[in-house]
Automatic annotation (TrEMBL):
InterPro entries: GH, Glyco_hydro_3_N, Glyco_hydro_3_N_sf, NagZ_Beta-hexosaminidase. Belongs to the glycosyl hydrolase 3 family. The lineage of its organism: Bacteria, Bacillati, Actinomycetota, Actinomycetes, Kitasatosporales. One of its GO terms (biological process) is peptidoglycan turnover. GO terms for molecular function: hydrolase activity, hydrolyzing O-glycosyl compounds. It holds the Pfam family Glyco_hydro_3. The keyword Hydrolase applies. Keywords: Glycosidase, Hydrolase. Residues 39-330 form the Glycoside hydrolase family 3 N-terminal domain. The keyword Hydrolase applies. This is Sugar hydrolase. It comes from Streptomyces regalis.
């Protein structure tokens, strides 16, 4: 591929403007600062970039010293998907817990407080909320990231979340359009397909996105999914019928369209990130998210050059690239204005996350259950984490139980012998078994059978989507695995 000089010509600047790359490290590398000077307008942050709120604030200030209107984006859903608190677990429950409570004002308050914390660190674009209707309970990648399986519930909480987040001056990026809930494949690994009819898509998948648009969402993220009823040939991210005809035309959306990570295998393994990025902009996307796994200057250069080459060859209309770049700059202008305005809708509620997590608990208790007075053994039946969540973030109830019941011990178990191994490790101590999406993992169901047969007084904590029937002397459904969800469950177990 031809490499173009990184000058200040309009075409080159526009090609850089539409990119949202990540990087490694907790300070901005020289190449990133240089690209900001050449036209790059957005940066994506991940857990690898964050150590403390103070460090994050210093990092965003470093970026703004180079370009004062830079969009600083993050994947901070709260709940299981957290970057601000990647090493400790989130102070906020995720969408599924908020949907379980079904108090739209609480959802707005949670999003507002989360937005306030992001804004205080200099972040002004959040790749959230997920507006996916989790209609397939076996969905491997959405699950507790969704408000639920009921379309109307998801729609009203999506709107409340958008309003709350943007009241803090942080742009919401509602995802994953046109809906990732009815999938059995994780698009990080392969291309999912949804074979639903148009009327089903309209009534189920699209309703929460209509609500988000009505609430004024400033950005929308596309999904790497194939929906033949909308476009039999291209995944949504690369589809003009989906992004331009449906989202822009039928739904009347005028804000920024951001792609999901282009390094995800649903795109990268089929089209490659350079070709995929050209097709995405041509289809109607305005910003190319890349950097979850690819985070270097070489990637930025390759994508910039691919876009410039596509324009010069006539494959990508120059006015389409210019329009996309202008939408990025328009969102940057909004964030500057929003940051200067006071947040609306009440005062600061720093405890709202824990309050929400407590309210989200669903308890099913045997008549003779009494809270524990002595330290138990916590058995964590641990599935493989999906890439969106990652395996850095701790989860469970052991740490919080140890705080309330000193001497609490724990072990992690998986596989066909997990139940027997857990019994051996626990000895004669009372067992608290922690599961995550029991209904999706046959080995986990078997392990729990073994535990409960031998020790019917076992307490079960389900921290995923609670589809399996409640069992144990006490069953607690937390509707998510955030740190505050674990704390709320531990309080019940210990009677605190």
């Amino acid at each position: 591929m031809t490499t173009f000089a990184s000058g200040t010509d309009t075409l080159t600047r526009d090609a850089l403007t539409v990119l949202q790359p990540g990087f490694t490290g907790t300070t901005a590398p020289d190449w990133l600062l240089r690209r900001l000077g050449e036209g790059l307008a957005s940066v994506g942050l991940f857990g690898r970039n964050i150590a403390t709120p103070e460090q994050l604030a210093a990092l965003t200030a470093q970026l703004r010293a180079e370009r004062d209107d830079v969009l600083v984006a993050i994947d901070e859903e709260g709940g299981d998907v957290t970057r601000l608190e990647v090493r400790t677990g989130s102070s906020f429950p995720g969408n599924h817990a908020l949907g379980a409570v079904d108090d739209v004002e609480l959802t707005r308050q949670v999003a507002s407080e989360l937005g306030r914390r992001l804004a205080a660190c200099g972040v002004n674009l959040n790749w959230a909320p997920s507006a996916d209707v989790n209609s397939n309970p076996s969905n491997p990648v959405i699950g507790v990231r969704s408000f639920g399986a009921d379309t109307a519930l998801v729609a009203r909480h999506t709107a409340a979340y958008v309003a709350g987040l943007q009241s803090a001056g942080v742009a919401a990026c509602t995802k994953h359009f046109p809906g990732h809930g009815d999938t059995a494949v994780d698009s990080h690994h392969a291309l999912p397909r949804i074979d639903a009819a148009l009327d089903v898509l309209s009534d189920r998948e699209l309703s929460p996105f209509r609500a988000a648009i009505a609430a004024g969402t400033r950005a929308m993220m596309s999904a790497h999914i194939l929906i033949p009823a909308l476009d039999p040939d291209h995944p949504a991210t690369l589809s003009r019928p989906v992004l331009t005809d449906l989202l822009r035309g039928d739904l009347g959306y005028t804000g920024l369209i951001v792609t999901d990570g282009m390094e995800m295998q649903a795109i990268a393994a089929t089209y490659g990130i350079e070709r995929g990025s050209v097709l995405a902009i041509a289809a109607g996307a305005d910003a190319i998210c890349v950097g979850g796994g690819l985070a270097d200057d070489e990637t930025v250069r390759r994508l910039r050059d691919a876009l410039v080459t596509a324009v010069r060859s006539g494959e990508l209309p120059e006015e389409r690239l210019a329009e996309a770049a202008e939408r990025v700059r328009e969102l940057a202008r909004w964030t500057a204005t929003a940051a200067a305005a006071p947040a609306a809708g009440g005062g600061v509620r720093t405890d709202v996350g824990l309050t929400a997590a407590r309210r989200a608990l669903k308890l099913t208790a045997a008549a003779d259950f009494t809270p524990l007075a002595e330290a138990p053994y916590v058995v964590a039946f641990t599935p493989v984490a999906n890439i969106a969540v990652g395996d850095e973030t701790p989860w469970g109830v052991a740490a919080e139980l140890a705080r309330l019941l000193p001497g609490t011990e724990t072990g992690s178990f998986a596989g066909k012998d997990a139940g027997r191994e857990a019994l051996g490790a626990a000895g004669d101590r009372r067992i608290v078994a922690v599961v995550r999406d029991e209904h999706r993992h046959p080995w986990m169901q078997t392990a729990l059978d073994v535990l409960l047969t031998a020790r019917p007084d076992t307490i079960v904590v389900e921290m995923g989507v609670p589809q399996a029937a409640p069992r144990g002397t006490l069953h607690i459904a937390t509707h998510g695995a955030a740190r505050v969800c674990g704390r709320a469950a531990a309080e019940v177990i210990a009677g605190k």
